[in-house]
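Why do we care about 3D structure at all? Because function follows from shape, and shape follows, mostly, from sequence. That is the central idea of this module. The next example makes it concrete: a single protein chain, its amino acid sequence, and then its structure expressed as tokens.
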Amino acid sequence: MDAFLKRILRAIKLETQLYEEVEADQQALPQALAVVIFSSLAAGIASFSKGIDASFISDVLGALIGWFAWSYIVFFIGTKILPEVETKADYGQLLRTIGFASAPGLLAIVGIIPFLYSIAIVVSSVWILVATVIAVRQALDYKSTGRAIVVSVIGWLIYSIIRWFFWIIVS
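And the structure:
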């Protein structure tokens, strides 16, 4: 457990080497899954401060589906549409690195303090996006951070549109 907690802290600190490590560690998928779950639970707990009715089961399921979808979209864009010459990756590498990139979402728990809710959500969301750029750069073996930014943002936009359409259909 100590090694897992250290990995989470290293992911939050945006340590490039951590993302290389989990990219290569095929046994890290359960840990990445746990990070995604814990991050979504932290945001759900924080939402209580605003009186938002958090459904933990649907929030966690949504986070897991989102993690799988965003990882696949980024994998497809990064390996098929915008690869670099050195790009060699599989979907599992993106799942592991993007899963750990959600570690800054744990900081959303600070939002349980009512006047800090909005700040905690915005800061943790931006931090997750920055971590995702690092995760993508490492998993896709990009030399260019700019390319990792483009792939991450395009992936996020496509995922957000799909999620929005799904929300409209379900509502």
